[in-house]
Design a protein that fits this description.
Elements: H1 2-10, H2 12-45, H3 47-50, H4 63-102
Keywords: Membrane, Transmembrane, Transmembrane helix
Transmembrane segments: 24-46, 66-83
InterPro entries: DUF485 (IPR007436), Inner_membrane_assoc (IPR052959)
């Protein structure tokens, strides 16, 4: 059993899979972190701007659609990751498995 694990770890396809997946996940994490920290900084340093109503006669402020946007962007980035995982990352996983089974 240990031999199978060693074969997988030594596989060029496996190393490529790990590298691509980590790089992509890191990039998406940085994007989300920048968006979230930006929103928190807006709350901290521009609360009056965020609290300004979108237009006269409404209780909906600028902060509400921006906050909803942060949530929506997190779902979109998750969807992008899943889409890529189901495509490219699954193909690389199958290549690793077929390589190990062939040996």
């Amino acid at each position: 059993m240990n031999n199978i694990y060693q074969q997988i770890e030594n596989s060029a396809h496996f190393r490529e899979l790990v590298e691509r997946r980590q790089r992509f996940a890191f990039m998406l994490s940085i994007i989300m972190l920048i968006i979230y920290v930006g929103f928190i900084l807006l709350i901290a340093f521009a609360p009056h701007w965020l609290g300004t109503p979108l237009h006269e006669g409404t209780n909906v402020t600028r902060g509400i659609p921006i906050g909803i946007g942060v949530i929506v962007i997190s779902f979109v980035l998750t969807g992008v990751y899943v889409w890529r995982a189901n495509g490219e990352f699954d193909r690389l996983t199958k290549a690793v498995l077929s390589e190990v089974k062939a040996s």
